[in-house]
Amino acid sequence: MKRFFSLTVALMMLGAVSAQQDKGGISEDMLNELRAGYTATEAQKAARNALAVNPISELSVNADNLAMIDTHFSHRVKTKGITDQQQSGRCWLFTGLNVLRAKMIDEQGLPSMEFSQNYLFFYDQLEKCNLFLQGVIDTRHLPMDDRQVEWLFKNPLNDGGQFTGVSNLVMKYGVVPAEVMPENYQSNNTAAMSSLLKLKLREFGLQLRNQKDRRAPVALKAEMLTEIYSMLARCLGVPPTEFEWSRQDANGNIVETKRYTPKSFYEEYFGGMDLEKDFVMIMNDPSREYHKVYEIEYDRHVYDGDNWLYLNLPIDEVKALAIASIKDNTAMYFSCDVGKFLDRKAGVLDMERFDYESLMGVEFGMNKEERVRTFASGSSHAMTLIAVDLDDEGNAKKWMVENSWGASKGYQGNLIMTDEWFEEYMFRVVVDRKYIPAETLKLLEQKPIMLPSWDPMFAPEQ
To answer: 91 an active-site residue?
Structure first.
């Protein structure tokens, strides 16, 4: 790491501290010291001039690392097509359905396939509204300024989420092909709809808290959800209960046409896969003890579903599980802090791609644990992990994820990350139990450590 502060500057800073006001403010003497500490060298002036008219993302590009990263991968899951979540926070839903899509395309020999995100998003929003309203009922004996009540009213609804949303929603409502309930403007642009729903939910929440009759809230909640359903139907459409679908072979010829319900469709093509029981969320959070199971309160999409539960493992163990899955042609739900060191145009996540330290003249020295503890880093986006490039000794050199930002973004709709970046900024991966060693699965038998709703790891992936 670079060191930029000379002994002279350090002494000036010490002087500034001594000049600080007793109450902790910046005194005139301290301000003079700070001004004196800024030495306007030619290099600093050049940087200031450049920053005045250019974005930091462009000025910090490392000229020594501009070449496109090698796009060869030793192991890659078979999948086709790139999806686009557009102006919505539904990456978690696109990612989960893309994992299913890859499996169905491969097993059925389909020319292409995409599931309806809009269909499950309708039920996601309906279920989250119920989650909030029931949460208000459950906590109405607490004062309005109680932290849990405050959290509920600050977070009545969002369009982000986690894998638990995928698993609970799919197992409860099934899936339908994209053409059965296609995307529309509101599903692709969720902000306005979400704002109105949240406004109505907060109004409903106050009404529920003011009810005196113990029996009244249940009936009142049903009336409220009827209004919510109507709002969602106007915006997203009415979810189908039955539909007809024609399966094609690899050449696009129709093999058979059948009628399905959403649940029978899932059963026919994924009948042996229970998303709620067969998959484990694996976390790499160095700020918490490894080999422990954690659960986050209210971190679920469905009130009668499961809180998000994860097993925290060291990064080397996480890598081993991911490699085993990719080698067996099985894509994974994966999430990370995507905005860090991202070259959007090239589709590269590389810590050597940008040199912020030289541009700003300071050192950024926190490690992953420190970044998590200080809220400087956390999982922000979910994608589908589909490839790894291994060296001759079986060690990962780089990874690739299928993104949901459209085919024109990144590397053919994908993002390629160096192994160093993977270690520093990946957080979660969902792995089929069959790839997890027995001794690791045994760790899931321990009682989970419950974390509060406001834990930083609750932040929904968008």
So the answer is: yes
